[in-house]
Amino acid sequence: MTPSPSALALLTPDEMAAVDRAAIAGGASGPALMRAAGAAVARALRKRFRPCRTLILAGPGNNGGDGYVVARLLEREGWPVSVAALAPPRPGSDAAMAAAEWRGPVLPFTPETLARAQLVVDALFGAGLSRELDGPAAAALRAVRVPLVAVDVPSGLDGATGEPRGFAPQAALTVTFGRLKPGHLLLPGRELCGEVVLADIGLPEAALASVAPRAFRNAPGLWRLPERGAQHHKFSHGHVTIPGGAAMPGAARLAAMSARRIGAGLVTLAAEDTATATLFRQGEPGLLVSAPPPEDLLADERRSAWVLGPGLPPRPETLALLRRVVEAGRHVVADGGALTAAAGQPHTLQGAAILTPHAGEFAKVFGALRRDRLAAARMAAAVTGAVVVLKGSDSIIAAPDGRAAINNNAPPALATAGSGDVLAGLAGGLLAQNLPPFEAACAAAWLHGQAATLALAGAAPGTPLVAEDLLPQLRAAWIAATR
Ligand SMILES: NC(=O)C1=CN([C@@H]2O[C@H](COP(=O)(O)OP(=O)(O)OC[C@H]3O[C@@H](n4cnc5c(N)ncnc54)[C@H](O)[C@@H]3O)[C@@H](O)[C@H]2O)[C@@H](O)CC1
Ligand SMILES: Nc1ncnc2c1ncn2[C@@H]1O[C@H](COP(=O)(O)OP(=O)(O)O)[C@@H](O)[C@H]1O
Ligand SMILES: [K+]
What we know:
Blueprint: H1 5-8, E1 9-10, H2 13-25, H3 30-48, E2 54-58, H4 62-76, E3 81-85, H5 94-100, E4 106-107, H6 111-115, E5 119-123, H7 135-143, E6 148-151, E7 173-177, H8 182-185, H9 189-192, E8 195-199, H10 205-209, E9 215-217, E10 239-244, H11 249-261, E11 266-271, H12 274-281, E12 288-290, E13 305-308, H13 316-327, E14 331-334, H14 336-341, E15 354-355, H15 359-366, H16 373-384, E16 387-390, E17 396-398, E18 404-406, H17 419-432, H18 437-455, H19 474-482
Parallel strand pairs: 2-3, 2-5, 3-4, 5-6, 6-7, 7-8, 9-18, 10-11, 10-13, 11-12, 13-14, 14-15, 15-16
Antiparallel strand pairs: 1-9, 16-17, 17-18
Helix pairs in contact: 3-4, 3-5, 4-5, 11-17, 17-18, 18-19
């Protein structure tokens, strides 16, 4: 079933804390939420582990409070549980109440205590992490050699960025509450979390709605694919133009084949020279091929979407062509050579609809990537006015207005030459069908990941694929997006 945009919302730790405050201000009970959170952790844990010597590492805040609840609930079921507290909760807090209800063993927070555990519940810090993890907390988590279940996030993981602050342990399971955080999806956080369970702990809808989310998990529901009706004709499904050069003609062809398969009514490969035009004419019969120069095609206003960059040389001429197309008011996806040609000059990309840099291209255009890649992608979008797809295993799609989506359905086999060309073609094909740039970029990234997932269905982990394998899967990916 397609999730609603609100179910796809990601809240940062600060936003989640605001929801928490709104819930309490609206009459929700803090201790009840804590009991629900602890119960959700205990439930998820019992489903996956058998009773064994379990150590709860409890921090001083509400994350620790959740931990005391887990301890009590597991012990009630006969699990051998003990607690090691890093620091006592603040007197009078909800966590102090939960700690007071724990009557089982409290062990010193030492390496010896840890060495006896067969399972560790990390309830040290969650949304309240305010500085780098250091001292005994970091030392204890570094020493864990048994499965670790994280409450909310592995302690030390910054839920806003997915980056560890100082250190964060590898969890087998992370149970979080209400909404996912960007850090559950952004690398390395996604991998440090292990399996992620999102638990409903009864946070009131009004409290959740009091914070307008700016980040989302990328999935159908965040966008809708274009519809087709009897009144439509090929021109109403848009005309994509893709200049291609002799150096890497296959890149433009992959983009063109993808744009067609995702529903563009017409796709033209605009050859840079006559030899390339001859080569392109040997391609798919349904592809249109035009003789050089590509800019002659600008006279036809129906050529509304252009994909510029796959296989084009990173030369000033490529950037000049991009400027002419942008100034003619066309929707442009800038990729590959067009991005590299703009190295150190992000303003030259202004007016493009979508930019699709991988990390290397991003650094060339916008400068060294900061650790907070979500913020970096948003900055790039704000500077250029374009939707920026910062590609990778956790592609970030950022809009100039601050909205961002994080894609998490792309298998690592996509790291193969030409797969970015397919993505650029999908984005161009969807822009041509009048999807707004953010929706087109998000849909393209998701369909790309889904096509790869379908191509690998039933294959052992690590099975490779090539970019061409994505093409026959695009129809099934489309169907999956519209179910
Ligand atoms: N969001 C919600 O609506 C709910 C949140 N709950 C839990 O509450 C947690 C957040 O609780 P808090 O806001 O109390 O925050 P935490 O419990 O995450 O941490 C806050 C405490 O840790 C200390 N601290 C922070 N970083 C530190 C560091 N690097 N080294 C040493 N000490 C450090 C702070 O001084 C403070 O005492 C969530 O992660 C979740 O587990 C649940 O209890 C139920 C509901
Ligand atoms: N480890 C990975 N896991 C999942 N997807 C990946 C991974 N590495 C790259 N990708 C995806 O593969 C595509 C590669 O694009 P790019 O590097 O531009 O390749 P090319 O230019 O050769 O086509 C991007 O969509 C990117 O998000
Ligand atoms: K934690």
